[in-house]
Specification:
By secondary structure, the protein is an alpha+beta fold. It contains three helices and eight strands.
């Protein structure tokens, strides 16, 4: 069951500390937190395991969502699968006559990475299946009415996305990748 996020919109803005990175709580966009807040609103929905659950067989403390591509050969890396949520890429459009608000577009990418390291009960590699499973969970999360309402309330409406699936080589290993190109278009935002 997907977590109801509408209540997050009403909480006072604060910080969640993840490692060395501070992520804002979900909240309304403002001119002083435009980049950080748009990222936080999307991050908090994707990083919620009620929305995008860990694939079966992974420990509950598995680091699953990252802000940038992790060092896959580093000692602190928890392994595959993982998700990378990119920073916000805003585009300013024409504004109001008062010059206090502008129409803004926000673009993101979310990438899912899995590998054939694990296998199913018959010994068949399941990296591609796992990538599809996570991709479906993210698609369901982005299409969920409560999540869409929460994003809209926080100033991020008119959601559109495309999905591209591919295989890539990372550290000489085949990795299955799904990439979401996400756009929030024509949002009237306080910018002045």
């Amino acid at each position: 069951m997907l977590r109801h996020l509408w209540g997050l919109a009403f909480r006072r803005t604060g910080f969640k500390v993840l490692g060395q990175m501070a992520i804002l709580d979900s909240g309304r966009l403002s001119s002083s937190t435009l980049i950080r807040q748009t990222f936080a609103n999307l991050w908090n929905i994707i990083n919620d395991t009620d929305n995008v659950p860990l694939p079966s067989g992974l420990p509950s403390n598995h680091k699953y969502v990252y802000r940038r591509l992790p060092k896959t050969l580093g000692r602190g890396f928890n392994g595959y699968p993982f998700i990378v949520v990119s920073r916000s890429m805003p585009k300013k459009r024409p504004g109001t006559a008062s010059l206090t608000k502008s129409f803004m577009d926000f673009e993101f990418s979310i990438r899912v990475f899995t590998r054939d390291k694990d296998s199913d009960s018959l010994g068949n590699p399941n990296g591609a299946d796992q990538c599809d499973e996570i991709t479906d969970a993210i698609t369901t999360t982005l299409n969920d009415v409560d999540n869409r309402k929460s994003l809209l309330f926080n100033g991020m409406g008119n959601l559109e996305f495309d999905i591209d699936s591919d295989e890539d080589e990372i550290d000489d290993k085949t990795v299955f990748v799904s990439e979401f190109d996400i756009r929030f278009n024509n949002n009237l935002t306080a910018t002045g």
